[in-house]
Design a protein that fits this description.
about 140 residues; mainly beta; four-stranded antiparallel β-sheet; three-stranded antiparallel β-sheet; 1 helix; about 35% strand; globular
Length: about 140
């Protein structure tokens, strides 16, 4: 699918690293390094602006390497870029580690997944159909 993009960053466009990759890495587009102290968060700009077709969203997700090795994740994961949003894509990063983390210009900070979605039309009813699970949640199906 074709997606219109404006790249105002100093970096190349996001791309799929392998033929089977679902996401493309987003890079920080900043004028000076940002230091995230433990439990601090910041919106890190990417310099990218997109126009998605209606029925699609762009999901901003954590990079597994940053999460596992450094404790850095996307706070509202996945963040959603709606089809009618035309502003700059920003990534809300949070430092869940006990160490400071420095974000440098051009660093890969998150990944972007383009996904199709549906819109729901609510149908109010008095009773829902029964299932084996019923109202059980939060661990009710075992470990």
């Amino acid at each position: 699918m074709k997606v219109q993009i404006i790249n105002k960053s100093k970096h190349k466009l996001p791309n799929y690293e392998t033929i089977a990759s679902a996401g493309m890495d987003l890079r920080a587009n900043i004028t000076e390094a940002i230091t995230l102290k433990p439990l601090e968060r910041a919106i890190v700009k990417t310099g990218l602006f997109i126009a998605l077709p209606v029925g699609f969203e762009a999901q901003v997700r954590p990079r597994s390497g940053l999460a596992a090795k450094k404790g850095i994740t996307v706070l509202n994961a996945p963040g959603t870029v709606d089809a009618d949003y035309r502003g700059e894509i920003g990534v809300i990063l949070v430092n869940l580690s006990k160490d400071d983390f420095v974000i440098n210009d051009g660093e890969r900070i998150a990944q972007l997944v383009i996904a199709k979605h549906e819109r729901a039309d609510w149908e109010e009813v008095e009773v829902l159909s029964e299932t084996d699970r019923g109202a059980g949640g939060f661990g009710s199906t075992g470990v």
